[in-house]
């Protein structure tokens, strides 16, 4: 149990385009979903916290207009990277929780912006 | 300012021996600590956690020790197996922090035969 999926697993896009990443909890309802990004050989940095039906809470330094988060249901959250640029290339990972301290992580999405 | 620090970027251990992964923190308001294991191009998987009111938690081959006075915790894996080779992240949750995880930089463990 407690499986989280992400789609796509990797994406390559041109600079200036937008990319949507989906995060789904497959066998449980997630009260909260988190979005992280990881640069090579670095730690996971929390970008935002998303609760179903409400606006996401962004961490300091994360542009909410660039990284749009929609948490439409208890099993789906989406992250849209708008007007992507090469510096947005990274590994994006979501996690989901049912309210406990334990977060279940998705497999991640590798974004490459040309 | 890094609140959770893993100062050893890598560790190499022989199969069957003990692996000890260390983590230091600066914020005394952390009330939970967790260890995650991560393979390349995959999301982290939860290993073990410990509450700040405890000093030890054990689960099979994995034991986490917490020294609050030193603001230090460690993950012991014994016996180490080749399948344990991965990056291990220490993470902490602030009291009243809505379960947001603050991660260390990770330690790459290599278990060789």
Which characteristics define this entry?
heterodimer, A: 114 residues, mainly beta, 7-stranded mixed beta sheet, 4-stranded antiparallel beta sheet, 0% helix, B: 113 residues, 57% strand, globular
Total number of β-strand segments of chain B? 11
Count, helices of chain A: 0
Q: How many β-strands of chain A, per DSSP?
A: 11
Q: Indicate the percent of residues in helices of chain A.
A: under 10%
Structural class of chain A: mainly beta
Kindly, what is the distance between the CA atoms of the first and last residues of chain A, rounded to a whole number of angstroms? 37 Å
Instruction: Please bin the fraction of helical residues of chain B.
Output: under 10%
> Biggest β-sheet of chain A, characterized?
7 strands, mixed
Q: In terms of structural class, how would the helical and strand content of chain B be classed?
A: mainly beta
Mean pLDDT rating of chain A: 92
Largest sheet of chain B: 6 strands, mixed
Q: Number of helix segments of chain B?
A: 0
What is the quaternary state of this protein? heterodimer
* Shape field of chain B: globular
């Amino acid at each position: 149990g407690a499986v989280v999926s992400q789609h796509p697993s990797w994406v390559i896009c041109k600079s200036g385009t937008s990319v949507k990443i989906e995060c789904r909890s497959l066998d449980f309802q997630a009260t909260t979903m988190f979005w992280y990004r990881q640069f090579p050989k670095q730690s996971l940095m929390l970008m935002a916290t998303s609760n179903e039906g409400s606006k996401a809470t962004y961490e300091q330094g994360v542009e909410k207009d660039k990284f749009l988060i929609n948490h439409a249901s208890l099993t789906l959250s989406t992250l849209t990277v708008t007007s992507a640029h090469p510096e947005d290339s990274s590994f994006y990972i979501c996690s989901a929780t049912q309210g406990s301290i334990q977060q279940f992580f998705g497999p991640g999405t590798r974004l490459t912006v040309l | 300012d890094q609140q959770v620090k893993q100062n050893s970027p890598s560790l190499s251990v022989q199969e069957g021996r003990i692996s000890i992964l260390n983590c230091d923190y600066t914020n005394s308001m952390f009330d939970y600590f967790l260890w995650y294991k991560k393979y390349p191009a995959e999301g982290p998987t939860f290993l073990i956690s410990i509450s700040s009111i405890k000093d030890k938690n054990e689960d099979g081959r994995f034991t986490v020790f917490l020294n609050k006075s030193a603001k230090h915790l460690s993950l012991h894996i014994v016996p180490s197996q080749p399948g344990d080779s991965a990056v291990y992240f220490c993470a902490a949750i602030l009291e009243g922090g809505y379960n947001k995880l603050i991660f260390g930089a990770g330690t790459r463990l290599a278990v060789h035969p």
